[in-house]
Design a protein that fits this description.
alpha+beta; BirA Bifunctional Protein, domain 2; 2 domains; 7-stranded mixed beta sheet; two-stranded antiparallel ribbon; 11 helices; 41% helix; rod-shaped; binds 3,4-dihydroxyphenylalanine
């Protein structure tokens, strides 16, 4: 019996244990035989013999059970070790995404104006005539409407041609000055060539305060600071222009970032690149929202144009072709 005990202790596999279990408890097993012998034991010895047999059965089944669980635990541990994956292992094949250059540029523009305390507002893409044109001093049949070839819906509404309508919506929402907002978003025009797509993005800006506090000087300061933030060390030029919703109106140019101002194909030999429109808010715009004794400035810019200049993209349409190779360059 000592021998069997040692065998159990020395066992290293569940198979071995099963073999030992059969040696003890199988049909011809040592313990099984013991119980078989019980029949032939004399009456006076029977009690003692049975007691011993029971003890042996209990001891061995306990020893076998204990060893079995110990071996099972080891086997399980080993299986887990085999199946484990190293989650810290670096996988070089994962494809990482990238922001679309238009969105990345938009974010950069938004970051600047948020840092200058502008709120970020939005308006509907399907706009009504009042917000897109009328309230911006663009009455029906005004020739300035022709500058924005337009998608109309049967309802008389239209896909907004610029973000300027959000100026009106924001003043309606705020009800009183001050307003200090930008409105980024998509706009739509019936255009398609190297530098125009039917859908593109603008960022509008509007600042309004009570009284005569806001002047062209404020506009000039913020746009110069903004353009230096976007393009670095460039010259900034304000050129007289016309927009129905501003008076005076100005287009803003930066010195050409391709040739440094000496003249090249991109700037059409002028040394300058037009980057945005702006001006002092026309009194008729305030009249449309019934605000008086206020002053303000506004500006609007095309995000794709900024992205093209920042990343030197020659054809605007490539931004919307969905070619993954374009995005992969920006990882
Ligand atoms: N809405 C004009 C456009 O789409 C851009 C613009 C010009 C916006 C001057 C303004 C502004 O707010 O003052 O061409």
């Amino acid at each position: 019996m000592q021998e069997i005990k040692a065998k159990i202790e020395a066992a290293t596999s569940l198979d071995e244990i099963e073999k030992i279990r059969l040696e003890l408890f199988g049909k011809k097993g040592v313990i099984t035989e013991l119980f078989a012998q019980l029949k032939s034991v004399s009456a006076e010895q029977k009690k003692e013999f049975a007691k011993e047999a029971n003890q042996k059965r209990d001891i061995f089944s306990e020893l076998i059970g204990a060893k079995k669980s110990a071996l099972e635990a080891i086997a399980q541990k080993e299986a887990m070790k085999k199946e484990a994956i190293d989650v810290t292992l670096f996988n070089e094949n994962v494809a990482s995404g990238a922001l679309h250059p238009v969105m990345e540029t938009m974010d950069k523009i938004i970051d600047y104006f948020v840092s200058q305390n502008f709120s970020v507002e939005s308006g509907p893409l399907i706009e009504d005539d009042f917000h897109n044109f009328e309230a911006l001093n663009l009455p029906k049949y005004h020739p300035a409407r022709d500058m924005q070839d337009t998608f109309y819906l049967n309802s008389g509404e239209l896909l907004r041609t610029h973000t300027s309508g959000v100026q009106i919506r924001t003043m309606e929402k705020f009800k009183t000055p001050p307003v200090r907002m930008i409105a980024p978003g998509a706009v739509f025009r019936r255009d398609m060539d190297l530098t125009h797509t039917p859908m593109f993005h603008q960022v509008e800006g509007l600042v309004v305060e009570k009284g005569a506090n806001v002047s062209f000087a404020n506009l000039k300061y913020i746009l110069e600071d903004f353009l230096h933030y976007m393009f670095g060390d460039v010259k900034v030029r304000f050129r007289p222009s016309f927009f129905p919703f501003t008076e005076p109106s100005t287009e803003v140019d930066i010195s050409c970032i391709f040739c440094g101002g000496s003249g090249c194909r991109v700037c059409k030999q002028t040394g300058w690149l037009e980057v945005l429109g702006s001006g002092v808010v026309d009194p008729n715009v305030f009249k449309a929202v019934k605000w008086s004794d206020v002053s303000g400035y506004a500006f609007g810019l095309g995000v794709e144009r900024f992205a093209m200049l920042l990343h030197r993209i020659p054809d605007l349409r490539s931004l919307f072709e969905g070619d993954i190779r374009l995005l992969e360059q920006f990882k």
